[in-house]
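TL;DR need structure tokens for one chain.
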Amino acid sequence: MFLASLGGTIGIIVAILAVVIIVFFVISVYNQLVVMRNKVRNGWSQIDVQLKRRFDLIPNLVETVKGYAAHEEGIFSEFARARGLYAQAQKSGDVGQMAEAEKGLSGTLSRLLMVQEQYPELKANDNFKELMAQLKDTEDKISFNRQFYNDTVLAFNNKIELFPSNIVARMFKFEAAKFFEVSEEAERQGVKIKF
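>> reply
TL;DR here they are.
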């Protein structure tokens, strides 16, 4: 009887211990997923800040170029359209839409930079040089932040998909994050900035 009682007590202790271990595991994985999801959000926020900076720089660059290339009106209207599309996408918070809008801006920016080749006096303008230096710095930061964001998304998505953390991820409805991808081959080349 004593052994039966001791066996029952040990069984209860083992069951309680197993439940406690499972609870701690779920809490640990949940907290890891939250931290990783917040890193993904922060990574996107850093890209967004740099894209905003680029959008703020480009109107100044456009105004500088306008004085030299007044007949290039199509570029200026394309830029305004691209900026409007990005503002709409930003409100939605959809990374895919923002990446698509950013693609339009990159194309317009490339065309704007080609205009400078036709106007040597524009390339000599100090204001233009300073804006181009700031734009190059911003492009470098965007590139770095895209890499950081995509690395963070990869780690987060792996955590969501790998066993056993995928069980906790499904329980709490964690969803895979979207990568910031370039959809056109021309964009893979980057913006060429020449002085």
